[in-house]
Write a structure and sequence with these properties.
- This protein is of the alpha+beta class.
- It is built from six helices and nine strands; from the N terminus they run αβββαββαββαββαα.
- It has helices at 2-57, 103-111, 145-151, 173-180, 206-209, 214-227; strands spanning 67-72, 76-81, 88-96, 117-124, 131-135, 155-157, 164-168, 190-193, 200-205.
- It has a nine-stranded antiparallel sheet, sandwiched between helices.
- The termini are far apart.
C-alpha cells in the first residue's frame, strides 16, 4: 500500500512538473513575442517617420524655416513651425503612424481602418471668412465632428463622396475650397477651417501623399490658406 502511494505521488509530481514546464515555456514564448513585436514595430515606425521627414524637407521653406521636432511615443512625429511664412502665423505637421509597437492595439486600430496619416494644422494671420468641415465620416481621425457641427446647425453643402460637407455661414465658396484641396490619387480625409485656432487643418493618407513631391502638397496647403 505504501509503495502504491509513493508511486502515485511520483506520477502526480511528474505531471505537475510537466504542466509547470509547459506553462513556463508558454509564458516565455508570450514574453518573447510581445517584446519582439514591440522592438520590430517601433523600429519600423521610427524608420517610416524619418523617411516622411526627409520627404517633407523639400517643401518646408514654403511654410517656414525654423522647426522643432519631437516624437510623441513611437507613433506620432510632430514638427512645429513657430515663425511661419504668410498667410500662416503658426504651423504644425503631424505624421500619425499606426501603433505598430503593440500588437493588440495595432489590430484594433486596423479594425477601425486607422492608417498612417498626414495632418497639417495652422493658425492664419487673418481670420477665415467662413467656417467649414469636409470629412470622410468613416475616418477615425474625424470621429465626432459630424455630430458636433450638426448640433451647432451648420449648413450642409455638396462634396464628392465619400466626403460630407458642412459650412457656417452657407457659401458656394465651401465647395470651391474643398476642390482646391484635392491631390491626385490621394483622397482628402478632412479639411477644417475655423475662426478659432487652429484655423486650418488638412488630413491625407500618408502613403498616397508621399507619391507626390512635398513642395506640390504644401503649395496646395498654402493655396487653401490664402483662399480661406
Amino acid at each position: 500500500m505504501f509503495v502504491i502511494t509513493v508511486e502515485h505521488w511520483r506520477v502526480c509530481h511528474n505531471a505537475a512538473v510537466a504542466a509547470m514546464s509547459s506553462s513556463l515555456i508558454a509564458f516565455i514564448a508570450v514574453v518573447v513575442f510581445v517584446v519582439g513585436w514591440f522592438a520590430i514595430g517601433t523600429q519600423y515606425n521610427v524608420r517610416k517617420g524619418h523617411e516622411a521627414m526627409r520627404w517633407l524637407q523639400e517643401g518646408l521653406p514654403l511654410i517656414g524655416e525654423k522647426t522643432t521636432l519631437r516624437w510623441l511615443g513611437s507613433s506620432v512625429v510632430e514638427l512645429k513651425i513657430q515663425q511661419a511664412q504668410p498667410p500662416f502665423s503658426t504651423a504644425q505637421v503631424l505624421f500619425v503612424l499606426e501603433p505598430r509597437d503593440v500588437s493588440i492595439i495595432w489590430l484594433f486600430a486596423r479594425f477601425r481602418r486607422r492608417r498612417d496619416l498626414f495632418i497639417f494644422r495652422a493658425g492664419l494671420r487673418r481670420p477665415p471668412q467662413l467656417e467649414l468641415e469636409a470629412l470622410d465620416p468613416s475616418a477615425w481621425s474625424a470621429h465626432g465632428v459630424e455630430s458636433k457641427v450638426k448640433a451647432e446647425q451648420w449648413t450642409p453643402f455638396p462634396a464628392r463622396a465619400p466626403l460630407i460637407g458642412y459650412a457656417r455661414p452657407s457659401s458656394p465658396r465651401a465647395s470651391e475650397l474643398v476642390a482646391s484641396s484635392s491631390v491626385e490619387a490621394c483622397p482628402l480625409v478632412r479639411l477644417a477651417i475655423h475662426r478659432s485656432e487652429p484655423n486650418l487643418e488638412l488630413q491625407w493618407p500618408l502613403d498616397q501623399l508621399r507619391k507626390h513631391p512635398a513642395r506640390e502638397v504644401l503649395e496646395i496647403v498654402r493655396n487653401v490658406a490664402q483662399r480661406a
